[in-house]
Amino acid sequence: MSTEMSLHELVELITSKLKTERGKNIKNASERDMYYVIASIVNEIINPDWLSTASKYKQSNCKRVYYLSMEFLVGRLLESNLLNCGLRNLVSEALNELGFNPENVYAQEHDAGLGNGGLGRLAACFLDSMASLKYPGHGCGIRYRYGLFEQRIIHGNQIELPDYWLKNPYPWETRKVDDAVKIHFGGKVHLFKKNVAL
């Protein structure tokens, strides 16, 4: 899919994808629906580049960097991907044309639950640096099903709650079930019940 689109072509594409992927028309679409449609369009644009890059790596048999980290704080990706594709202004115009506030649509994206601290942000910056310097490389981490955790202070106690970041589909991942590896831990888990009102 080309990034050279007119405003009219993009509006038509958004409207069409809204029907085929979300089963809705503009009148009954939510900001979240629009977020997923725009993410789908961006994925169609960037995925051929991913495949081409992987093919070139394989053909050249080049050395690659694998950055292993327990967490990657990558942030929200829709706007940065739109900027990198040169589409942010055009998409914002199209959303306005369709009666949506672009900032509200972009705000539908939640942070990936892959990290919550400075080391996760540093790891993500290393990946950005590798890409900017054109080093062939990958980030390797853990896809936390419930995020790292959400902290709350309740009645003076720190409580850790799961971060349900995957309750809605995450459009920036391509699941490769055949490549998944389950990691088992040894030891025993002891649960201590404490009366804490949530």
How do the strands and helices of this protein lay out in sequence?
Elements: H1 7-22, H2 31-60, E1 65-68, H3 78-85, H4 88-97, H5 102-106, H6 118-132, E2 137-140, E3 150-154, E4 157-161
Parallel strand pairs: 1-2
Antiparallel strand pairs: 3-4
Helix pairs in contact: 1-2, 1-4, 2-3
CATH class category: Alpha Beta
> Would you give the CATH topology?
Rossmann fold
The share of residues in extended strands comes to: 5-15%
The largest sheet has its strands arranged as 1-2
Q: Supply the helix-strand structural class.
A: mainly alpha
Percent in helix: 40-55%
Computed over alpha carbons, the radius of gyration is 20 Å
Structural description of this entry:
The structure is a single chain. The chain is mostly helical. The protein has a single domain, classed as Rossmann fold. Helices cover 42% and strands 9% of the residues. Helix 1 packs across helix 4 and helix 2 crosses helix 3. The longest helix has 30 residues. The N and C termini lie far apart (49 Å).
Briefly characterize the structure.
Helix content is 42%, strand content 9%.
Keywords:
about 40% helix; 6 helices; Rossmann fold; 4 strands; two-stranded antiparallel ribbon; about 200 residues; mainly alpha
